[in-house]
């Protein structure tokens, strides 16, 4: 006997329009992978030659910078080219503290992070009043101004010659300087893990949920009487602090910093690393950062300095082959993708 459904009646429970939620993998399954990953990173200096260890130190420093870009681009919907300004602020602060005040690594980390956060707070107060392409251009201007300022302050930063003579960091007052590549790597790894942990706490906090609300439907927040400006400013300041931490780690392993280390090219590959890895995730951009630095610094040296060309081709291919980034290969649910051109409410739209 057929069943007649009136217009006002609800659809039966067995209706094909009703889809059961997909089973999600238990979160505890990720814990063993995280532990194994950390143990592998800790063990690297014991079975890898010094140069690859130094390369991995650069990768971890750059990955922390990429995380700061992802917090704005992927989680808040604010594609940015300005994080290298705060990266440079942290790096120069750590270097100057090491030369003139103390070689203590913890003090350099603290002061570098605070200076970068303060600079992000001041500049972000203006920058986050914009959205989309305008915001991208404002952050690019911040990067260029910071680069020009570092280049012109020769008495402080060394100008175009760079800040050299930075002593090796120490962990305790009067302690032995960390000169060996493996020891420096352990410090950089420590800074990276602290920065990553802070980023994870942020994105899972109420502020992180508000950031995603700004990204997905800022106009709805306004309609509900909620202001998005404080959320964006706090996210911008926090991301600036993470970038400053990355700068202190970079100085600790390189013991040299110049305006060229905070140029537009670094800002561009940091943003493209987020796109390549998958905006709105953390592990995807970290993996992409490792690929980018490996190609730029290692593969590029093997092909007569054509690493930038290889990176350019990689990014072009990734735009078409991986529209949701590396993370999109394993994430079957909808994920955010970067929307740079135009000024939408979110700045980051769901993949279609």
Automatic annotation (TrEMBL):
GO terms for molecular function: branched-chain amino acid transmembrane transporter activity. This is Inner-membrane translocator. GO terms for cellular component: plasma membrane. Residues 1-24 are annotated as: Disordered. The chain crosses the membrane at residues 28-48, 54-72, 84-103, 109-128, 183-203, 233-252, 264-295, 307-327. InterPro entries: ABC_transp_permease, LivM-like. It is a multi-pass membrane protein. Pfam families: BPD_transp_2 (PF02653). The keyword Cytoplasm does not apply. It comes from Enemella evansiae. Residues 10-21 have a biased composition (Low complexity). It comes from the Bacteria. It is found in: Cell membrane. Keywords: Cell membrane, Membrane, Transmembrane, Transmembrane helix. Its main location: membrane.
């Amino acid at each position: 006997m057929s069943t007649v459904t009136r217009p006002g009646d609800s659809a039966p429970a067995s209706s094909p329009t009703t889809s059961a939620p997909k089973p999600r993998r238990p979160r505890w399954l990720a814990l063993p992978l995280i532990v194994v990953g950390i143990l592998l990173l800790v063990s690297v200096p014991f079975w890898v030659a010094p140069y690859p260890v130094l390369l991995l130190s650069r990768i971890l420093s750059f990955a922390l910078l990429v995380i700061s870009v992802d917090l704005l681009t992927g989680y808040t919907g604010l594609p940015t080219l300005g994080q290298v300004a705060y990266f440079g602020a942290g790096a120069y602060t750590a270097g100057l503290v090491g030369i003139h005040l103390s070689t203590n690594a913890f003090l350099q980390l603290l002061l570098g992070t605070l200076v970068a956060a303060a600079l992000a707070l001041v500049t972000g107060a203006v920058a986050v009043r914009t959205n989309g392409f305008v915001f991208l251009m404002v952050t690019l201007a911040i990067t260029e101004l910071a680069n020009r300022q570092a280049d012109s302050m020769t008495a402080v930063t060394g100008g175009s010659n760079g800040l050299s003579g930075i002593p090796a960091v120490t962990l305790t007052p009067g302690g032995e300087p960390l000169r060996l590549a493996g020891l420096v790597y352990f410090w950089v790894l420590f800074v990276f893990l602290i920065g990553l942990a802070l980023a994870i706490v942020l994105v899972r906090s109420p502020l992180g949920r508000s950031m995603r609300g700004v990204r997905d439907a800022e106009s709805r927040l306004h309609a509900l009487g909620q202001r998005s400006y404080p959320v964006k400013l706090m996210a911008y300041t926090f991301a600036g602090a993470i970038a400053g931490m990355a700068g202190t780690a970079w100085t600790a392993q390189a013991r040299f910093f110049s305006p060229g280390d905070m140029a537009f090219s670094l800002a561009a590959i940091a943003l493209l690393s987020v796109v390549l890895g998958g905006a709105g995730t953390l592990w995807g951009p970290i993996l992409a950062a490792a690929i980018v630095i490996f190609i730029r610094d290692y593969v590029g040296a093997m092909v007569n300095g054509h690493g930038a060309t290889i990176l350019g081709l990689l990014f072009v291919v990734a735009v078409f082959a991986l529209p949701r980034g590396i993370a999109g290969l394993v994430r079957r649910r909808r994920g955010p993708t970067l929307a740079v051109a135009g000024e939408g409410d979110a700045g980051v739209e769901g993949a279609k």
